[in-house]
Amino acid sequence: MILHFIYDSLDFKSSVILIFVLLILVDIIENKNPPNFPPGPWPVPFLGTIFTKMDFKTMNKLTEVYGKIFSVRVGSQKMVIASGYKIVNEALIRQSDTFADRPDLPLFNKTFNAIGVALSNGYPWHMHRKFTVSHLKTFGDGKQSLEFGIQQECVYLCDAFKAEKGPFNPLFITNGAASNIVACLILGHRFEYHDENYQNILRLDTECFKLTGYTRAQLYNVCPRLFDYLPGPHQTIFENYRKIKCFLSGEVRKHREDWDPSNPRDYVDNYLAEIKKKESDPEAGFNIDGLVVTCLDLIEAGTETVTTTLRWGLLYMIKFPEIQEKVQEEIDRVIGQSRQPCFADKVNMPYTHAVIHEIQRFGNVLPLGFPKRATKDTTLGGYFIPKGTSITTNLSSVLHDPEEWETPNTFNPKHFLDEHGQFRKKSAFLPFSAGKRACLGEQLARMELFMFFTSLLQQFSLSKSPDEEPSLDGEIWFTYAPAPYRICVSPR
Q1: Rounded to two decimals, what is the model's pTM?
Q2: Rounded CA gap, 68 and 59, in Å?
Q3: Interior/surface letters 329-355, b for 16+ CB within 10 angstroms, e for the rest
Q4: d(CA 479, CA 369)
Q5: How far apart are CA 141 and CA 443, in angstroms?
Q6: Domains in the chain, please, with CATH?
Q7: Each residue of 441-453: b (16+ CB within 10 Å) or e?
Q8: CB 417 within 8 A of CB 104
Q9: What are 467-489's pLDDT values in tens digits?
Q10: Percent of the chain topping pLDDT 90
Q11: Which residues are paired to 464 by β-bridges?
């Protein structure tokens, strides 16, 4: 009777207002934080903290307000942000098993479908990670065959630099060099820097990294069903990835046509063999779709971050010529000009080794890492974190933690040198993240960065373009990349 009376008493406008108020109350009740949950900005009903940018600079500012652990809400999904070395170390190392899963991220799952290595969970993730680690040990990490391949690519890289007749943007060439190492590893061959089809694939992938950092693209995670029908950068991301996966599917198809199980040439061949082995275990996820997505995982992990780090390195060398000269003095003393650098030279080149580490620290290429999800109820930094909660570790705050670095906001290779000028490790150096979700290709990336960097500085002196002053302020993509700049090179 009461409900009937209320219904009869309301006009259309009042009914709409009542329904809206009820929905707000439902949203507040459903999304109420549990006791002792990390504090954070007040969320907007239905949308969460939609007006809070999800970039590392904003996260650093929020840390000053709410502390080193706080929370935000993307739609109805709660996300905890952990900052500072002590808290991040607790999450990634001491609670590595607890924060081993990936959360549901519609913007990425649209393409990666929660398969492969980077975005899968549970048994499929465990099996794919185990298989990929085994392949890297067989075909690469620290093996002479891979080092020889990197040395060959160094020749192509230096030749491409030498062919430039004036100021040029190094993005195109460095991207080609870094991607070729991964291409050889997974596809069995490299691509010429002027291969238009392959360079277009790299451009599409770079554009995805750039657009993914846009707030408008991240809105897709709030309401994917709605945004599926709306234009925006998310549509460009999906179309780019579709073209990239089409390209990779073509490469897989070529491999299947002349595949010899007794003579595996690369990652694709090994994966095809694993598909056969796991026919009785479909839950492991080894199939052609899994192969294509895993290839995409490896290409993205091994190309964009190395390219961006190398670009930061070249930028720092032209901005700090005195550091460039010290690196070249060490190269001349240890390697000379009569042979190529090799990875074993690293132990005899503490200053160059320290400079590369400082490039990674100061460059801050992957400032927020990649989100993880709690597999069980836990506590972090004294706060309660319920099972299923997403967590983002602010790696930028670790690499610039004033409690861990003498001059955190200054480019300073001495961070990695002891009082005797010898290289020293720092526990707060986490550019590759840490724990069970740390970058699989960390050792490969270390080899590439050392050999590319030393090869270039062995052969060239680098300087800025006479008509521009490049900025040390980067652009916030999914990664943190240098703004476009040009360099001049002169043979030494």
Answers
A1: 0.93
A2: 10
A3: ebbeebbeeeebbbbebbeebbbbbbb
A4: 9
A5: 6
A6: 1-32 (no CATH), 56-491 (1.10.630.10)
A7: bebbbbbbbbbbb
A8: no
A9: 999 999 999 999 999 999 999 99
A10: 82
A11: 487
